[in-house]
Amino acid sequence: MNKIDLGKEKINKLLIMFAIPCVISMLINSIYNIVDQIFIGKGVGTIGNAATNVVFPLILIYGAIASLLGNGVSANLSLKLGEGKKEEAARSLGSTITIIIITSIVTGLISYFALPLLIKWFGSTETVYPYALAYGKIIALASPFVIIYTALASVIRADGNPKYSMVLLITGAVINLILDPILIFTCHMGVEGGGIATAIGQIVSCIMAILYIFKMKSVKLKKEDFIPNKSIFRILGLGLSSFITQMTVLVLFVFMNNTMTYFGAMTKYGSDIPLSVYGIISKINSLYISSILGIAIGSQPIIGFNFGAGNKKRVQETLKKVLKINLMIGLFFNLLFVLFPEFLISFFISNQDPSYELFMEFAILICHSFMLFMGLNALEITTSITIQSLGKVIKSTLVSFTRQIILFVPIACLLSFGLGFKLKGILYAGPIADILCFFFCVFLFTSEYKKLSEEKIEQEEEIELESKKDYEGNQIVITISREYGSGGRYVAELLAKELGISFYDKELILLSAKESGLREDYIKSIDEKNKNAKYEANNDDRLFIAETKVIKKLAKEESCVIVGRCADYILKDQKNVLKVFLYNDEDSKIKRVTKYYKIPKEKALKEIKKINKEREKHYKYYTNRNWLELTNYDLLLNVDKLGIEKTVDKIKEYIK
């Protein structure tokens, strides 16, 4: 990342560099599951395919837990390393690894002992049940290895080694590919053979991941780092988005399994064939989803950086290219499903299977109904991921829920249960949901695209940043933390003027913009207005990192007064720093904000409490300390007891 200029390099080159590795990694994960399906289908038949489909929701659960912890800790690791806080990074990583191990073991035990109940909930029929139970027990026993290596793969990528992370996945997939035919056909172990082959591949990947952790480049882990600490709550917050997305897929999968078996029993196909075919179609479809997601996720750093830097034309160019690529991929897979369903399904079932003809007939039916317009999903996925890159997290989440939960499930229930179309109602709900979601995404994508053209960037006037020349004392840095309505900023400005040193408040916006590549109006809009600790977008963290670098640089080079921005914490280890906290009583605050900020008296107290609470949360998020903890500061003064001028005098006396 340090060698790549995201703001100037050609978009095509950047997409190749970022998207291709992402696509490959995601495809390997999909192929992992498909390999089992192919060999079990050929070796065991329809029942075997249905069994792997019934157990698949377990794999989704394991993936969701791994994403929650793995994506969360890798995001936190990147942030802490960017801040130069290697010890904190090591402690949070070690703590989370311990939590990952404990969680994986507990999850494995619960899923193993609850398996008989779970596979019934997941849509198993009586015929499929013994096969699903046999396969599921092996998958459940191997689940700790799956969760650990999947979570650690994210950490390894964050450590700057995506190649090794990819090798983990490839190694497990290759082992599975080699052992599947040996155990299923040569050793005649059926679904258990497929499960054992998968488990062995996962165990090897897990061992490789654990070995890497002890030779990480960015941090060195010590024994005490593995003690769980409070950082886990932040980790969970950072990984929550990925967890919710995967659980949404789980809900849809379980819904489809149950409806396939329920309504399939009322047709000539029976329960097992629809269940089995849907599982196969879903696995093939995962190749399509992985390709689309890989391109979209790979574009996130490019879109996010250029949006933050105000390069709207490059954002638009990236959006257009990503959308074109993904729509072409969508069209390709759509034609594949509609024109060549027999070819696709033939990999998963032997033509000697007794149910071969009915199996193929239903496969063609589902491809020509449920998957009829599946290529339109490319716009839904692209819109969701790219809008998230622009910081529109709520809209992005809405898009993710639109097709599966908001549209498909209600339409499927209406057609199948309400209007009596039964199995066909479920199948034709798919294309209806795809079309409706497509038009919704066209509107949303177009509106966001237009905003990029219409939005005007207000440029701040160039601010004079040269240091004052008339201060002759020893170097001193005064950090001013203050309650809203205390007059603290005015005190700080007057103090700097009387001492003859530089004053930094809004001036830091320009310096931070130059440091981070974020545009000034964006920094101004988010500066000290973080309303809670759910920092989904990286840009807020990038701003803090930039401000930290700027503040440390200023403190080394000159005497100055710095207002807010957690400067007291950032400079806590520097000797020539005076940390001041300014406050006053409630009535004085109300009078001040009413007089100087023109806030109506009846709303003043509410606004004061709100802003002080925001400052407190912001400070807690980045420092893990309490803003109002008195021991953080060297000097605490009540401004209204002393008055502005005398407060300045008191600070000057203290400095002397």
| Sequence of strands across the biggest β-sheet | 2-3-1-4-5
Number of strands: 5
- Uncertain runs: 455-468, 528-539
The major pleated sheet works out as: 5 strands, parallel
The radius of gyration over CA amounts to 29 Å
Strand content: under 5%
What is the SS-derived class? mainly alpha
Work out the helix count.
Answer: 24
Helix content: over 70%
User: What is the averaged pLDDT score?
Assistant: 83
What's the overall geometry?
elongated
Q: Span between N and C termini?
A: 46 Å
The helix-strand sequence is HHHHHHHHHHHHHHHEHEHHHEHEHHEHH
- Assembly type of the chains comes to single chain
In short:
With 656 residues, this protein is mainly alpha-helical. It is 73% helix and 4% strand.
Which helices and strands appear, and what pairs or packs with what?
Blueprint: H1 11-43, H2 46-82, H3 86-113, H4 115-121, H5 129-158, H6 162-186, H7 190-213, H8 231-264, H9 272-308, H10 312-339, H11 341-346, H12 356-367, H13 377-389, H14 393-418, H15 422-454, E1 477-482, H16 488-499, E2 502-504, H17 507-516, H18 520-526, H19 538-557, E3 560-563, H20 567-570, E4 577-583, H21 586-596, H22 601-623, E5 635-638, H23 639-642, H24 644-655
Parallel strand pairs: 1-3, 1-4, 2-3, 4-5
Helix pairs in contact: 1-2, 1-6, 1-7, 1-9, 2-3, 2-5, 2-8, 2-9, 3-5, 4-5, 5-6, 5-7, 6-7, 8-9, 8-14, 9-10, 9-12, 9-13, 10-13, 13-14, 13-15, 14-15, 16-24, 17-19, 21-22
